[in-house]
Amino acid sequence: MDRNRRLLISILAVLVLSAIIAIVDISISMKPGDKKLIQVKKPEMGPGVGIVRIEGPISLSSNTGYLGVITGAEAIVKRLDDLQKNRNIRAIVVRINSPGGTVGATQEIFQKIWKIRKKKNIPVVASMGEIAASGGYYTAAACSRIMANHGTITGSIGVIAMSPNMKRLFDKLGIRMNVIKSGRYKDILASYRDLSTEERRILQDMIDSSYKKFLKDVALGRNMNQSDIAKYADGRVMNGITALDYKLIDGIGTFEDAIDSARELADLSEDSPVYDDVRTPFQQVLMSMQGFFRGRSVLEKNINYGESQILEYRYIP
Question: Would you state the pLDDT for residue 254?
Answer without folding.
Answer: 97
